[in-house]
Design goal:
Layout: E1 4-8, H1 12-23, E2 27-31, E3 43-46, E4 49-52, H2 61-69, E5 81-83, E6 88-93, E7 96-100, H3 104-114, H4 118-140, H5 154-157, H6 167-174, H7 178-185, H8 204-212, E8 215-217, H9 222-234, E9 238-240, E10 245-251, E11 254-260, E12 263-266, E13 269-272, H10 276-281, H11 292-297, E14 303-311, E15 321-324, H12 329-337, E16 348-351, E17 366-374, H13 382-400, E18 408-414, H14 416-423, E19 455-457, H15 468-484
Parallel strand pairs: 1-2, 1-13, 2-9, 6-15, 13-19
Antiparallel strand pairs: 3-4, 5-8, 6-7, 10-11, 11-12, 14-17, 14-18, 15-16, 16-17
Length: 492
């Protein structure tokens, strides 16, 4: 009889783990608390508009390709990708925009226009970023975070100094133009930490940005979730929705099963892709690895205030991805990491998928997603949400020279309380635990429980870190550890 594995949650990491474990010979069932799968990567449909509720950026396509190749598939078997051009644009003020196009040559030309001599510096910077990317993807991120020795390779030894400097230090040393520096500092925000706290080695995110480019799956990021769901089901994975987990059952230090909706399910192995802190709350205290003080001391990636807006007309002077950096970045960052509070003048990001994808909005209309990064754990009220929507829409109108507020058909919001209610997210964080130097690799919460046999974890709070590609990798790493600790071996 096959060993059964029960997986908590149906986000990217859980779905990925389910595929690897099913192929390895396990009987796999996913338990999802919400009515639809996808975890943070769900979708909102309303009045003919379609929005990705969570991730909207498709970066690091090679990681997706590697995932599907492990099952003799390709992304193209499931969804259609379009490389965006421009990748994104950045507003620094009214009619003051830098556009990042779809090749390094075009980007270098834009840099040169802003700061003579910077194109040569950019190519040197991206060459080093590519070297870091190759090392990260080949040597580091597919390690399970068990030992510090995982970080010690001939390639990483040569990069040792980059773990003791920061992205901000390196960028500001090479580029004097503040606007160009901000663009180069932007990609590490996907790691959930400030550029001043992120080791230089993580410049590999700049290669993901400028070297590999930004893509869009037709019909949205949710198509990737549906693709992995289809793969999982073809492999025999069962998925239960509306199935919140109430308890993880442990006897004599061995995981015995789960309780969902009052029903007990016997388990040989449990893998949780749910919020790590929440998962441990499902255990009796003696079986929890990390105390409340442990979690409270950690640096978490931001939460977000998100708005999903239907407009009755097409908008102008914006791209599919548009960043608004017209206010001071450091002041906003301090309100997230140093003195948590609602930022007085927030930076924000906007996505208009209907510019690229006709499926996102009815003809002649526009779908808009607006995001303000926030400190986790802040007070979240409808009054605050409305106040901040007014702030960013007024700035948006001024910066892009158009009136849009009277053209809003509807708006939906999602913020800290929703992250807590929908995802059991610790303090309502949106992206997991930040990848700072002291929260990297073996220093992150473990994939395998130290206190409960046959209990494993996957996702953004464990190895390798936040983001969609790392979540896919995390699913594979967790599955690898399961097979190494049971009688089955992965055949991939």
């Amino acid at each position: 009889m096959k060993s059964n594995v029960h997986i908590i949650g149906s986000g990217f990491s859980s779905l990925a783990a389910s595929c690897y474990l099913a192929k390895a010979g396990y009987q796999v069932t996913i338990f999802e608390k919400n009515a639809t799968i996808g975890g943070r990567a769900r979708q909102l449909s309303k009045d003919g508009f379609t929005f990705d509720i969570g991730p909207t950026w498709y970066w690091m396509p090679d990681v997706f390709e590697r995932f599907f190749a492990d099952f003799n598939k390709t992304p193209e078997d499931y969804y259609t990708l379009e490389k965006l051009n421009p990748a994104y644009s950045v507003y620094f003020g009214k009619d003051d925009v830098i556009t990042i196009e779809n090749t390094l040559e075009k980007i270098a030309a834009a840099f040169e226009k802003e700061e003579p001599g910077s194109s040569k510096k950019l190519k040197t910077f991206i060459d080093r970023a590519k070297s870091n990317y190759d090392i990260a993807i080949k040597d580091l991120v597919y390690n399970p975070g068990i030992s510090p020795l995982e970080l010690v390779t001939p390639a990483t030894f040569k990069k040792l100094n980059q773990f003791f400097s920061t992205i901000k230090t390196d960028v500001r040393k090479a580029f004097k133009n503040d606007r160009l520096a901000k663009i180069l500092e932007f990609p590490v925000l996907f790691l959930g930490a400030k550029p001043s706290d992120t080791p230089s080695f993580y410049s590999f995110m700049n290669y993901a940005d400028f070297g590999l480019g930004t893509f869009h799956p037709k019909k949205g990021m949710y198509q990737v979730i549906l693709a992995i769901e289809s793969l999982a089901q073809d492999l025999g994975v069962h998925i239960k929705t509306n199935a919140a987990i109430e308890k993880i059952i442990v006897k004599n230090g061995i995981c015995q099963g789960l309780m969902s909706n009052g029903v007990t399910y016997a388990s040989d192995v449990v893998v949780s892709g749910a919020d790590y802190h929440h998962t441990e709350s499902l255990l009796e205290k003696p079986y929890r690895q990390y105390s409340e003080s442990f979690w409270n001391k950690k640096t978490f990636a931001p939460s977000s205030l998100l708005f999903y807006v239907g407009f009755d007309k097409k908008l102008k002077n914006v791209d599919h991805h548009t960043l608004f950096f017209d206010v001071d970045f450091d002041t906003h960052a301090k309100s997230i990491y140093d003195r948590p509070k609602w930022p007085e003048n927030p930076l924000f990001y906007a996505s208009f998928p209907s510019i690229t994808d006709e499926n996102a909005a009815p003809e002649g209309k526009e779908a808009g997603i607006f995001l303000i990064p926030l400190a986790p754990g802040l007070e979240d009220t409808q009054q605050l949400r409305d106040r901040y929507f007014k702030k960013i829409i007024q700035r948006f109108e001024d910066l892009t020279s158009q009136h849009v507020e009277n053209h809003i058909i509807f708006k939906e919001s999602f913020c800290i309380n929703d992250f807590i209610n929908d995802y059991n997210s610790y303090k309502g964080n949106a992206y997991g635990m930040a990848n700072t130097l002291m929260q990297t690799a073996f220093l992150r919460p473990k994939l395998k429980s130290k206190k409960v046999k046959n209990l494993f974890f996957t996702g953004q709070l464990t190895v390798p870190g936040p983001g969609v590609p790392p979540s896919l990798i995390s699913g594979k790493l967790a599955a690898d550890l399961v097979t190494k600790n049971t009688n089955y071996e992965i055949t991939i």
